[in-house]
């Protein structure tokens, strides 16, 4: 049971996590690896066009893939160990940040949420309160106050300087933090999703939110861009149905985002639109919409990312491998899949291998 007396939902990960969407940073390429024969057939020609020309180069690629698969296999254990160590050794700078308060949120954001939760709310009314961007179905909205953003960055820098262990936020970013490991999930990001972001996303993206099931899990993390560290982020899509990306600061130049079409649209048929990232404002977009981040020119940019997931949607089709998911029991929210209990449609359409 959770603190509200509700039975806890079990969440799962698709087995494709060990084979699909492996990012080769040197070649700016996502690949799938099941066997070497399959990998060569699918990717060797593209790798050659990007400079992987010798047997030594190819062996280095295979070694990096093996290292990434090993990292993914041990991820849950290592994350649990880091979380326990953080709780033992880390003392927060701003303990009040770990529990969501309305004072953290921009007044205009609270107005939008109140409208979305009202009985007469509809999509057209919501669109009138948001700022659309040039990219299709990408919307800007104020989310947090600048004070909250400044204090959160201070907290993250304090953690960065501490002896506590740190994990990579995702497979593409090297610098940042996983907010669940720091203890933000239960008090901050879960209520933010459930009470505030969920009602907005359900009106904006009903096609992504799984109908009545809504956005029932998330992965939240912070990424950092710096000219001496991660400069940019390659073109990709998220393991999410809906994504919120909030610029926390600090002072920076460059680093705008760019958006294309959905992942299934051929690259040759896509035009990208650049979108400015403004401190304390968030960008909402569909998780399967292709996007990236341009190089930061100066300063430092911290961004809070919330990947929101709808189990009723992804139980039918894994967003990463585009297949019916084959599931493995995970920790916490895992990758947002469920076993379909209580969801007749999802249970019929998901072929789950539960271990």
What order do the helices and strands follow? Answer: EEEHHHHHEEHEHHEEEEEEEEEEHEH
Strand sequence of the main sheet, in spatial order?
4-5-13-9-16-7-6
Question: Treating each run of at least 4 consecutive H or I residues as one helix, how many helices?
Answer: 10
Proportion of residues in extended strands:
15-25%
Q: List unreliable stretches of 5+ residues.
A: 341-355
Per DSSP E runs of 2 or more residues, the count of β-strands stands at: 17
Plain-language structure description:
- Helix content is 32%, strand content 22%.
- The chain has 10 helices and 17 strands.
- The strands form 5 sheets. Strands 4-5-13-9-16-7-6 form a 7-stranded antiparallel sheet.
- β2 and β3 form a beta hairpin.
- The radius of gyration is 20 Å and the shape is globular.
- The two termini are 22 Å apart.
- Mean pLDDT is 91; it is low at 341-355.
């Amino acid at each position: 049971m959770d603190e509200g007396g509700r039975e806890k939902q079990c969440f799962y990960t698709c087995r494709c996590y060990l084979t699909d969407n492996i990012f080769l940073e040197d070649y700016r390429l996502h690949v799938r690896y099941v066997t070497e024969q399959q990998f060569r057939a699918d990717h060797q020609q593209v790798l050659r066009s990007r400079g992987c020309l010798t047997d030594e180069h190819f062996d280095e690629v295979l070694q990096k893939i093996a290292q990434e698969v090993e990292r993914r296999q041990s991820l849950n254990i290592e994350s649990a160990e880091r979380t326990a160590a953080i709780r033992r050794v880390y003392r927060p700078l701003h303990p009040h940040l770990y529990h969501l308060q309305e004072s953290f949120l921009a007044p205009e954001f609270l107005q939008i949420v109140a409208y979305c939760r009202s009985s007469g709310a509809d999509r057209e009314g919501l669109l009138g309160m948001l700022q659309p961007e040039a990219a299709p179905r990408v919307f800007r909205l104020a989310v947090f106050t600048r004070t909250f953003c400044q204090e959160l960055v201070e907290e993250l820098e304090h953690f960065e300087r501490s002896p506590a262990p740190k994990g990579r936020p995702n497979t593409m970013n090297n610098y940042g933090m996983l907010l669940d490991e720091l203890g933000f999930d239960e008090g901050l990001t879960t209520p933010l999703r459930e009470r505030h972001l969920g009602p907005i996303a359900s009106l904006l993206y009903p096609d992504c939110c799984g109908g009545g099931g809504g956005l029932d899990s998330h992965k939240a993390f912070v990424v950092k861009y710096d000219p001496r560290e991660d400069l940019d982020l390659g073109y990709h899509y998220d393991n999410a149905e809906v994504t919120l990306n909030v610029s926390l600061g600090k002072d920076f130049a460059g680093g705008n985002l760019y958006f294309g079409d959905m992942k299934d649209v051929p690259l040759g048929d896509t035009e990208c639109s650049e979108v400015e990232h403004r401190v304390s404002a968030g960008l909402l977009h569909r998780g399967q919409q292709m996007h990236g981040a341009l190089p930061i020119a100066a300063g430092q940019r911290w961004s809070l990312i919330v990947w929101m997931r709808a189990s009723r949607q992804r139980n039918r089709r894994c967003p990463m491998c585009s297949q019916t998911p084959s599931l493995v029991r995970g920790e916490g929210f895992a990758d947002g899949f469920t076993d379909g209990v209580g969801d007749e449609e999802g249970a019929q359409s998901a072929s789950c291998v539960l271990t």
